[in-house]
Specification:
It is a single chain. This protein is an alpha+beta fold. The protein is built from twelve helices and 16 strands. The strands form four sheets. A six-stranded mixed beta sheet has the order 3-4-2-1-14-13. A six-stranded mixed beta sheet has the order 5-6-7-8-12-9, with helices on one face. A two-stranded antiparallel ribbon has the order 10-11. Helix 2 packs parallel to helix 3, helix 7 packs antiparallel against helix 8 and helix 9 packs antiparallel against helix 10. The longest helix has 30 residues.
């Protein structure tokens, strides 16, 4: 996929130049910032688009504004729109699993506005994500000089382990008074290659250059949370193996880096550098398996993530307000789980109170089949709940598995008393047994 960002300095009257850049560069997604569009204005480019516009001031046109142009047939939906005088953010989701976010931060924005903008950007960074636009941020890591916004953006990128890609030795903003690199990409979970300034006849409409890059990500490959344990990082044998590997591979890579002639070769060398660093530990990396919890669903999962956020905030700041919110959510999660357990036990124990053994057996088998069908339907719909352990157990009681018909199901005389006694004598808050039902 080929993506690009362009500070167009007013889209009205520049539609032909933008459309020509789209065709010449063969783009799939183009983020236009500083479009200066009012909410009532229309875009006449002939491509599908999403718009973020600002209200016009009393005199003149509004500054800022973002427009996303996308290739026909590309399925997208808008995730969020944030528009203030200091920054604008437009986020879209590209199917099957990519978030593309356009950013414009005005020059000389205050500290509070910059931190608020970066915080909102981080909240949108879920899964493979690409941020692009005019950041008005300069830092010696990618530019000749450093300003306040550049320090904030650089610290934000390092803090959240993001990747920043900017043109090498090519200014994205050029005027008679100076030049700078303020238009670039920030990404997570994707690879961006060949980031360059796409020069052409469209450069006459703006003092910014169009910045483009090749994006690669795999939506089909399963994401695994692999990690290297701290114990392995302190293991003398592993460290000795890593030392030998580094001494063997790093000198050749260093020579290759000093002789690169293009941005793509430099990006590939950086990726190989990461592979060399991780190679000695690959045999000891283990994916974390998802914990199986029978009553867990997407609602409880979102509550658990919110609870974790409050706990981390309390741990960093020591504010008791966050601790109280953490405790309240913890109680809510436990109470919800307990209620679900009670509902299941009541559903299966109610037919046992019937005095007629044949009717009792018929109701039990009906409930078993009903719950098995619900589980199969939930699995087909892609529900996060995975009751595979429980359904495997209950299917053993069905006639198709054991060959016992409902009329041959005989219930002992003391079955109800034994069941009630066993449930009451079971310890609370314990793991599930062979039947898959928690106490």
């Amino acid at each position: 996929m080929r993506i690009a960002t362009f500070n167009v300095n007013g889209l009205a009257g520049s539609e032909a130049a933008v459309h020509k850049a789209w065709k010449v560069l063969g783009l799939d997604i183009l983020c236009l910032v500083e479009t200066w569009l009012r909410p009532t204005d229309e875009v006449h480019i002939g491509l599908p688009h999403d718009i973020l516009s600002l209200e016009a001031p009393k005199s003149g046109r509004p500054h800022g504004g973002i427009v996303f142009l996308r290739r026909p047939g590309l399925k997208t939906r808008v995730l969020a729109r944030y528009a203030t005088k200091s920054y604008q953010v437009l986020a879209i989701h590209v199917k099957p699993g990519l978030n593309v976010i356009g950013v414009y931060i005005t020059p000389n924005s205050g500290r509070t506005a910059i931190q608020e903008c970066l915080s909102r950007l981080k909240s949108l960074c879920r899964g493979p994500t690409v941020f692009m636009g005019d950041w008005n941020a300069r830092h010696s890591d990618w530019d000749e000089k450093t300003n306040k916004q550049g320090r904030f953006v650089r610290n934000w990128v390092l803090q959240w382990n993001l990747s920043l890609r900017a043109p090498v030795a090519e200014p994205t903003f050029l005027t008679p008074n100076g030049r700078s690199v303020v238009d670039f990409f920030v990404s997570r979970g994707v690879q961006i290659y060949n980031v360059t300034c796409g020069n052409g006849t469209w450069d006459s409409v703006s003092d910014h250059s169009l910045v483009s890059g090749d994006l690669q990500w795999s939506a089909d490959s399963p994401r695994q949370n692999k990690r290297i344990s701290k114990a392995m990082l302190k293991n003398p044998d592993t460290l000795q193996q890593a030392k030998r590997s580094y001494e063997e591979n790093l000198p050749a890579l260093l020579h290759e880096i000093t002789t690169v002639s293009s941005n793509r070769e430099l990006d590939e060398a950086c990726l190989r550098f990461g592979d060399i660093l991780r190679k000695p530990f690959e045999s000891n990396r283990r994916p974390r398996p998802d914990r199986y919890r029978f009553f867990w669903d997407s609602h409880l999962d979102s509550l658990a993530k919110l609870r974790s956020k409050f706990y981390q905030k309390w741990k960093r700041r020591g504010n008791m307000e966050f601790w109280q919110k953490y405790k309240d959510l913890d109680k809510l999660i436990k109470r919800t789980t307990r209620d679900k357990k009670r509902a299941l036990l009541e559903e299966f124990s109610r037919p046992v109170q019937d005095e007629t053994p044949s009717l009792m057996a018929k109701r039990v088998n009906t409930l078993i089949k009903l719950r098995a069908n619900r589980a199969a339907t939930a699995t087909e719909r892609g529900n996060s709940l995975d009751p595979s352990v429980y359904t495997k157990h209950v299917q053993e009681s069905q006639p198709t598995s054991c060959g016992v018909s409902p009329q041959h199901f005989n219930v002992p005389e003391d079955f109800e008393h034994e069941l009630v006694t066993t449930v009451r004598s079971s310890l609370k808050q314990k793991a599930t047994g062979p039947d898959g039902i928690a106490n």
